[in-house]
Design a protein that fits this description.
Helices cover 45% and strands 23% of the residues. The chain contains 6 helices and 5 strands, in the order βαβααβαβααβ. Helix 1 links the parallel strand 1 and strand 2.
């Protein structure tokens, strides 16, 4: 019997091993609640601008699209019993996650954190932190 707590859940994935726990938790909640789950990978288009084209052997967009597809295939492999839709977006990750969540009227965003600290966090920022600040729905941050 499904608990009708969250009708729509967004799981943000970046394809990293550190994100696996967040994916598993989001799918578990989605399975238990009978939710529609959206697995979202945002291709950070700022990375295209920074890639040195003279030393690149492959098109950076193609490389990132392959990473995105791989990350979402992984989520699909874990999603037995879950009504799952996978989505690839382009842009600044935190902004695109919040925009998509708003458009789809998401009830819960599940996002992992890499627990960066100090200068690394200052320089790179935190997608999870920005999503927390901007989203209007509930958010579960998983270490």
């Amino acid at each position: 019997m499904a608990i009708e707590l969250f009708e729509k859940i967004l799981i943000a994935t970046d394809g990293s091993d550190m994100n696996i726990t967040a994916i598993e938790e989001g799918l578990k909640i989605g399975r238990e609640c009978g939710s529609k789950v959206f697995a979202v990978y945002v291709m950070d288009t700022r990375r295209f601008d920074k890639a040195p084209t003279d030393v690149m052997m492959k098109d950076p967009r193609e490389v990132i699209q392959t990473q995105a597809a791989s990350a979402l295939t992984f989520v699909q492999s874990k999603a037995e019993g879950v009504n799952l839709e996978t989505v690839i977006l382009e842009g600044k990750p935190d902004a695109e996650i919040v925009k998509y969540a708003t458009e789809k009227e998401i009830d819960l965003i599940v996002i992992g954190t890499h627990a960066k600290r100090g200068i690394e966090r200052l320089l790179l920022g935190s997608v999870a932190e920005q999503v927390i600040r901007s989203a209007s729905c509930k958010i579960l941050v998983v270490k």
